[in-house]
Amino acid sequence: MSNFLSLVQNEQMKIYNRVRTWIMLGIILISALSMALMLKYVIKAGMTHVFSFMAMSTSMSWLVFLFSVIVAGDIVASEFTWGTIKLLLIRPATRSKILAAKYVSVLLVLTAFMLFLLIISYFIGLLFFGLSGAVSGAESFPSILQSYGIKWIDLLMYVTLAFMISAAFRSSSLAIGLSICLMFTANTIVLVLAQFKYTWVKYFLFANTDLSPYLLGGNPPIAGMTLGFSVTMLVLYWILFYVVSWLLFTKRDVAG
Question: How far, rounded to the nearest angstrom, does the alpha carbon of residue 29 sit from its chain's CA centroid?
């Protein structure tokens, strides 16, 4: 166990020692600050409570998605690109542990970015909007946490997909590009297919990643879909993605 934790620690050090990681965090901070300035002084939205701003801050989760996918798509492929994979594999840890440590590191980065957005949105919202106004039920702190949790699950599946592509094809550009493309087009494709009454679309990953219709109110893409069904599909896809990553990373020749 200590060996695995040291692998995770090593991966975290590599991630946070890169300038780009801190640039990503800086962009999230600047974006949240810009959003607050826009709402306060340009749009003059009349927002009077920090929780109202925090509820709106989930709209910036696409930045967390983008930056997390960059890390996930690069974390395995870059080892092959730079030729450091052989140095990594001479360590006493098995390939399975190395892959698991990289995946856990990706999840930690995703979680850290989401928490960073949540925390800075609180302090920025407190600075600009205070605590004096009233808030609706959807803007209560438990509801905000629920929204962040739902978005985290959504992003988890895309990040895992990027990680699988990175491990399978050893190409960070393919992993990042394809994941971003799917993030911004998959929901539209699902909705179009649903309009044509193709009920089999409910088995697509992207018809199930957004759990908000079940938990926050709304209609699922296909009538009759339930929370249990979507969670089951997500678990099955998650297993598939990780098994494919594991098979290709552990079984393929490093020189190949």
Answer: 17
Token pair listed for 55: 């509820």
Rounded-to-10 torsion of CA 232, 98, 18, 179: -30
Amino acid at 62: W
Name every residue whose Cβ is closer than 8 Å to that of residue 135 and which is 6 or more positions away in sequence: 49, 51, 52
pLDDT tens digits, one per residue of 24-76: 999 999 999 999 999 999 888 888 889 999 999 999 999 999 999 999 988 88
Q: Is 178 exposed, middle or buried (CB count within 10 Å of its CB: 0-12, 13-18, 19+)?
A: middle
Q: For the segment 47-58, what is each residue's pLDDT rounded down to a tens digit?
A: 888 999 999 999
